[in-house]
Amino acid sequence: MRSLLEIKNIFSPSQIIDWKKASPVHPKNRGIPVPTLKIKEGGCNECKVCETECPTHSVKILSNDSIRFDYGACLQCGSCVTACGKDYIKNSGFLYVFSKDRDSLRITYTNGEFTPEPEPADTAEVAAFRKLTRTNGFLYREVAAAGNNSVECELNASFNSVFDSEREGVRIVASPKHADAVVFSGPVSKGMEGPLSDAWEVMAGPKALIACGTEAVSGGLYPKGKRPKEPDLFIGGDPPRPDVVLQAFRYLMGRFSFSFQEALHKYMQSEK
């Protein structure tokens, strides 16, 4: 029986994700909230219930036609969408919330639209890291800096047969001395500031610091702690899915051409 199953698997189609067909939008997921064009028609009445209901204060009503989202602080919980009784905000299903620049994750909409801004040029550190890892991938040490372990669950899932992180040459190592990057989750509590800093300092360069998950990017529900330096990559979501994490890694390595604001703008245009 086992032999028959093995033969069947040989001829079965591969279940490994095809990055060429991967999409930043997943209709079955909430994704980040975005304003609808209804705000252009009627104008927001500035009740600010969405602000009150947002657990991380990632949404800000600026005027009756202007709204700002900080997607680095957004939990993608959908509370603002539920709170808005006018259907001025909706869940987009857009999940690729990552960038090398923290400010790129903050967007101000006017009449339900925005103009994407180009991302800043790579720093010397990121350019050196990309040159090192573009072909062979990288090893990383994961540091759980007082998070809720949901990010760790998704990182573990990234090594299964569907996502297959090692296919990209991305692997976890036990010691930061053997790593090319530190991936940390959680808001970085006082007790974890030292261990995170130590893990970073013992690594040889070129190296990268990666904030994985909303808590790591902005603190989320908690105060943001001290980091060794400004992260080289910010990955939003609480937690981000395995495919989102791996696409973000591919983006950092230079294997995936991507701009968060341009991709989101393209999605918004397609929804008109």
From TrEMBL:
Q: Indicate yes or no for the key word Magnesium.
A: no
Q: Which metal ions or organic cofactors does this protein require, according to UniProt?
A: [4Fe-4S] cluster
Q: Which Gene3D superfamilies does the record match to this protein?
A: 3.30.70.20, 3.40.50.12280
Output one GO MF annotation: 4 iron, 4 sulfur cluster binding
Q: Which residues form a coiled coil?
A: none
The 4Fe-4S ferredoxin-type domain extends over 35-64, 65-94
Superkingdom to which the source organism belongs: Bacteria
Keywords of the record = 4Fe-4S, Iron, Iron-sulfur, Metal-binding
> Iron among the record's keywords?
yes
* Family stated for the protein in its record: Belongs to the complex I 20 kDa subunit family.
Q: What is this protein called?
A: 4Fe-4S dicluster domain-containing protein
